[in-house]
Amino acid sequence: MPNQPRPAWRELAGQVAMFGLAALLALLVALPVVALLFRVPPATLMAQLGSSGVREALRLSLLTSVAATAVSVLLGLPMAHLLATREFPGKRALEVLMDLPMVIPPTVAGFALLMAFGRAGLLGGTLSAFGITLPFTTAGVVVAQVFMAVPFFVGAARAGFAAVDPRFLDAAATLRAGEMHTFWRVRLPLALPSLVAGVGMAWARALGEFGATITFAGNLAGTTRTVPLDVYLLLHEDLAAAATLSLLLIIMAAVLLAAMRQAGLGLFAPPRAPRFAPPRAR
Amino acid sequence: MIPYEVRVNRSPNRAHRWLASGLFLLGALLSAPLAAQQTLTVFAAASLTEAFTDLGNAFERDHPGVTVRFNFAGSQALATQLAQGARADVLATADQRWMSYAKEHRLLSTEPATFARNRLVVVLPRSNPGYVEKLQDLTRPGLKLVLAGAQVPVGAYSREALRRLNGAPGFPAGYDRLVLGNLVSEEENVRAVVAKVQLREADAGIAYVTDVTARSREALTLLQIPDPYNPIAEYPVAAVAGGQAALAESFIALVLSAEGRRLLAARGFLTPGRVAP
Known about the structure:
The complex is a heterodimer of chains A (282) and B (277). Chain A is mainly α. Chain A has 12 helices and no strands.
């Protein structure tokens, strides 16, 4: 049966369905963005950019999301390398653990963070003994963002490390390079496109983080009120300002995604790097 | 062409069976609510959560076949949701400001009627990590105070209370400034304020007395705000334009009835100063 030619109308119906559904999806994603553009005349956009509240939220968002991305890279690289290169008991559980923040609702994540690192949390006493307070502080915002964003970096970095052609590693081994030496000189450079893609995704996730932040770190202008929190607040106060900030967030994310795509670094982009290129070719 | 053989050869998987039974369960859960014929949608202030749930149960008992569905949130969120096109039959807010907002935006089909009043109270964690013994202690530097945002009714009332205490006997001038200097977070509704205090993350917060529910009482200590300084919150209710008018009006009638009063009083609300028609 499967090898008999199908009637022409079924082929046509399939084509119509494919283009129709694809167009529907494109509209579903594009319309809200376009609607925001209509809502915000360019003059309003510039005027809002000058307002101190908007600038304060933008500054805080940039500061915390960049810090969260740096922490994610620092903590995520060793984990990604371990998961890509080693087999050990409990590895499956660790993999699930690393993916968990991607699928739990951010509000739940924020609540769990409070239970762990809040003043009355499991580690609260220990932290305050060291003079560290996380809830209601900018550091708390960073912690919430790291929690939500780090899986994106670990996932991408791990895939990148695992995709490195073993022949290069073998070659390094014949030259008596140790594992760490090979990591820095062979594995890391070869996996760089994936790492950059991971950084981009983690940064975008940190920038858009809302639920964990508002639950764990609270909501105060200049300290914990990042752009997404400000948007939520402005929805009940000043719709033009809310639309402006939303648009800014979307533009920042779109520019980042487009730049990554241009460089062939998208998380789901087909690999463009030649598989067998020598490490320094790119 | 897809190599069909490969698919056929795949051994029956336990995961598939789990998935199938999961989908079946989901379907069963989704189809259950279809049995009710009529649904009344009520948008109510977060502080009304318990009282209105009681009222909803009473209403469902008196009106077989009707299901009451609630959206509890900060009044500012409810009013703006309606203005943005959300559908509801009844709106009950925690202040006149957001009810007026709804009225100005032609979102209502009846005149708002005030059905309850509420007092403010300072809530502290039972362990009192901030050593707050009296209202004056709220000015102590480093104290962690949580309030609702200024656009949330309880947030506006809280700031009003602090303003009234300004220079009152035993209170310094600029009392409100000093207290607001300790603000560490502005929450989006009154329940979030209570939660932050209950979790002992904040040293103090301001909420309605009714928010200290049976569940949270044991975790909290209360500090009263004396009467002349306590702005009494007023709760108006109205039918929403474009909703099911008859059903909405009979729900509002229940809220304003003696039984409604009794249920509201049981949850700690005060009866309105003037009896509504």
